[in-house]
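Our preliminary data section would be incomplete without showing what the modeling component actually yields. Below, a chain of 137 amino acids is followed by its predicted structure, encoded as tokens that our downstream tools consume directly.
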Amino acid sequence: MSEINKEHIENRVEDWGQRIESVFSLVKSSLSGNSEIEFAEHKTVQMNEELMQKFGVSAVSLPVLEVKRKGVLVASFKPIGLWVIGANGRIDILTKEGSYILVDLEGKDKPSDWRVYTPKNRKKSIPFDKEFVLGLV
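Predicted structure:
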């Protein structure tokens, strides 16, 4: 296991940003054929987790992806945290139907395995894929 130091934390934060972008890319490409859909990324959330503070890593702003249909917000993808128990990052998907929890179940240095926990079922996850995204809107 590699030593945890400032550089390690910075690399993890950078990787988290890239994985968030890849989630947003999947959402955008899944919905790209729908002319009623627009995307906005002007909102951000501050990431300043405990490990970042401990190692003197500066807070970063992470984008929030908003999905609108005919100008009405239908889903918002909000990064919650990188260091979460049992996962390699969490993004909440906020909708009128409730909030979905999107987590990467893969460890570091492996391809992401994004899974969704729905408002109705917090015990069993479903795959985060094009089909899921299309079902959201």
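The mean pLDDT is 94. Strands lie at 37-40, 44-47, 60-63, 65-69, 72-81, 90-95, 98-104, 114-117, 126-127. Preliminary results of this kind motivate Aim 1 of the renewal.
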